[in-house]
Specification:
Helix content: 40-55%
Number of helices: 17
Largest sheet: 5 strands, mixed
Strand order of the largest sheet: 3-2-4-13-7
Bound molecules: beta-D-galactopyranose
């Protein structure tokens, strides 16, 4: 098993001031309008598993349904009541969840990212620790760094089902071939911009972006930060150490991000992440910066990895971790069914059913590789290699307090329109002081 690269230092929850509303990220619209119902009447029958998740797009929908089917085969008497709430990165589901929690009627389990995204629920005593679910076998086969991301106050609170990678540029191979572009020549952000310029000069839209729900713009910013600022800067950023609005690296990152924005589709504000992938699929754009759920999307469209599309990892030695987990709400109506679900998703069987379709890789290090495509096999190798640096994703909830992420989504969304580097650097630093530092409970450390 690879060495843990990051360690978490947990500090007192007494100084932990995240308010529940902070967990809502800034998106206002939905991919497909979601029905937000807060009053629900679930009878306390034993054989029900009520579950919330946001996997409604191509690839992710099929992946979770395949796991439900396996669970059903194993527990035919448990009825799964799934409530998918559309909106990538959980933009809408988080709001629905918050209402359910406030009403004291949570589901039996729900999807949440590992790390900070879980913290408001834990602070409000809305989750039950699940140390009994974490068997020795699981402790042996989940990388330490991932275990630490679901532990608070020394207790396990979630079971990860996968590991996604955020720092990927997906490209249409047919377009690259047509214009003679060698993906192996792209080793840095500057290389990427050179290719973007070349494509633009030939009338091709270099990048598809779909930031209608804001977060895809933050996602691209995060990847630019890692590529241009480097891992040490990224780590300082998430630890709240960037407090000078004139920080030269922060400005360099913002300038680089502004350069990237010169190459995106003009209708980006009207599109969602999967519609942006659709532009690459149709050949209307050459590339998109997105996590490897894009891999699941392309596969669901019938595209073949390394034949129709490819992946460029930037920076190549970094794994920007996006980890989907499920938890046990304290007031779950059917905790027994929920515990069966949590134990199940901690198995190789569940992870090797879900991840080949989802585009992600298994969180466990003992899952056989045969069901995975070539890109996933590479990523599994990378995750297990001790020379890969692991960083937690900002956009996907792990690295920073939810209140700060919400600010950042708004700030980056404004930057996409006004491109004002100085003002944006000031706004970011203000948000660090206002919403990151006061809510900080963990220190991310490169070891
Ligand atoms: C991420 C999540 C992925 C995928 C993506 C788009 O936040 O971790 O599993 O669902 O959003 O919906």
């Amino acid at each position: 098993m690879r060495k843990a690269v990051y360690s978490l230092l947990l500090v007192s929850f007494l100084v932990f001031g995240v308010i529940a509303s902070g967990c809502i990220s800034g998106g206002t619209s939905t991919e497909t309008p979601a029905t937000v119902t807060v009053t629900k009447s679930v009878a306390p029958e034993q054989n029900v598993l009520e579950i919330y998740h946001w996997w409604t797009a191509g690839g992710e929908k099929q992946a979770i349904e395949a796991v439900f089917k396996k669970f059903k085969d194993k527990y035919p008497n448990i009825e799964i009541k799934a409530n998918p709430v559309s909106g990538g990165a959980g933009v809408n589901m988080k709001m629905v969840l918050q209402s359910l929690m406030l009403a004291g009627k949570p589901p039996d389990t729900f999807q949440v990212h590992a790390g900070y995204e879980m913290s408001p629920y834990i602070k409000a005593n809305q989750l039950t620790p699940i140390d009994d679910i974490w068997t020795d076998d699981m402790k042996k086969h989940y990388p330490q760094v991932i275990q630490q991301m679901v532990m608070f106050n020394g207790h396990y609170y979630a079971v990860p089902i996968n590991v996604h990678r955020a720092n990927v540029v997906w490209y249409n191979k047919h377009i690259f071939e047509k214009y003679g572009i060698d993906p192996n020549s792209i080793k840095s952000f500057d290389d990427l911009m050179r290719v973007a310029q070349e494509l633009k000069s030939k009338g091709v839209t270099p990048f598809a972006l779909g930031d209608r729900n804001k977060w895809p713009a933050t996602h691209a910013f995060e990847v630019v930060m890692l590529s241009v600022g480097g891992v040490q800067f990224y780590q300082d950023f998430i630890n709240g150490k960037i407090t000078d609005p004139n920080d030269p690296t922060l400005k360099k990152v913002l300038n680089a991000y502004a350069e990237y924005l010169n190459y995106v589709n003009s209708d980006h504000a009207a599109k969602t992440w999967d519609e942006a992938c659709g532009l690459v699929y149709k050949g209307d754009a050459a590339m998109t910066i997105m996590g490897d759920w894009a891999n699941g999307y392309f596969k669901a469209k019938g595209w073949k990895p390394d034949v129709d599309y490819g992946a460029i990892v930037l920076p190549s030695n970094v794994y920007d971790l996006v980890i989907d987990t499920f938890v046990l709400p304290a007031k779950a109506a059917h905790p027994d069914a929920a515990k069966k679900w949590l134990s199940f998703i901690g198995t190789v069987e569940a992870q090797n059913t879900f991840n080949p379709i989802k585009g992600s890789i298994p969180a466990r290090d003992d899952a056989p590789l045969d069901p995975y495509g070539p890109i996933q096999k590479e990523f599994i190798k990378d995750l297990r290699s001790s020379s890969t640096k692991l960083v937690p994703s900002i956009t996907h909830g792990s690295a920073v307090p939810p209140a700060f992420l919400s600010d950042l989504n708004d700030i980056i969304s404004t930057f996409v329109t006004n491109r004002n580097v100085d003002e944006t650097a000031k706004s970011i630093v203000n948000a660090v002081k206002q919403d990151l530092l006061p809510n900080k409970i963990k220190e991310w450390k490169l070891t």
